[in-house]
Amino acid sequence: MIKAVVTGHSRGLGAAIAAELVTRGIPVLGLARGHAEIGEGMEQAVVDFGDAAALAAWLQGHTLSSFLAGADTVLLVNNAGVVSPVGPLAEQDPVAALRAAVINVGAPLALSAAFVQAAPQAERRILHVSSGAGRSAYPGWSVYCATKAALDQHARAVALDGDPRVKCVSLAPGVIDTDMQAEIRATPDAKFPLKQRFVDMKEGGVLETPAACAAKLVDCLLSKRFGHEAVDDLRNSAA
Ligand code: NAP
User: What is the pLDDT of residue 237?
Assistant: First the structure.
């Protein structure tokens, strides 16, 4: 039996991944501040990944191990993430930078270790939702670029640990039509000089739907090849 944990399942890509997994008969535990209307096959817990103390307390509880019990393959999709704060250092809110580092890096790293330890008998697959911004630097996105690069390097190092029953991949999903893209298009030009590129993609109708992206991402997560490349791009991968 397969079971999955998905972070940031309340909206956007995470909601579509959770729905895709449930449709394929895989029970999902969703973790976010908000809820999703997904119905049967879905459990949800309210966790704020920006609150490191609250996350630590949650990780010390039994929700994760109770949910994963009885599964022989378990999946963790570290999808929750934030793009803000956007702008050069002189204008960046330091507290927002700290919070983004906790949400985008601290939480997925802590959750990955807790997840591996919560299901010691199972094959464990971890997918970090990374970004092209972890691989190419963009002005105004220093926090976002740095946090996504950290996920890529985490996956590379986990692969070197060499546990054949623990696979970890950091995957860039492409550009998807979600609240995060709307937030990017609403950024003042001075804070994000490349904004027009994202406005053009939306107007040109080239953004992927969350459902289409989620279907490919779940194919990748369930494929025999999963883990062959620690850092990958969904636009390249033939699952
Ligand atoms: P989104 O629409 O803004 O949704 C973000 C999700 O993360 C929500 O479910 C949100 O849930 C959760 N989240 C945010 N802050 C949280 C917190 N403090 N605690 C717990 N959960 C939190 O973003 P998206 O576009 O779907 O992005 C999903 C992932 O894909 C992100 O990691 C993003 O960096 C990555 N990505 C997106 C694109 C794109 O084009 N959209 C491209 C490359 C990579 P709550 O608000 O309910 O807590």
Answer: 65
Phi-psi region of 12 (alpha: psi -120 to 50; beta: other; left: phi over 0): left
pLDDT over 80 (residue 57): yes
pLDDT in tens, 92-107: 999 999 999 999 999 9
- Please give the Cα distance from 131 to 133 (Å, whole number): 5
One DSSP character per residue, 41-72 reads: TEEEEE--TT-HHHHHHHHTSSHHHHHHTT-S
Q: Is 8 in the pocket of ligand 1 (CB under 6 A)?
A: yes
How many residues does this entry show for the chain?
239
Asked: is 2-178+209-237 a CATH 3.40.718.10 domain? The reply is: no
pLDDT tier at 239, thresholds 50, 70, 90? very low
Least confident of 3-12, 97-106, 193-202, 230-239: 230-239
Domain boundaries, the chain: 2-178+209-237
pTM score, whole prediction = 0.98
Phi, psi for 236 (deg, rounded to 5): -100, -20
Mutate to test the pocket of ligand 1, among 7, 9, 10, 13 (most ligand atoms within 8 A of CB): 13
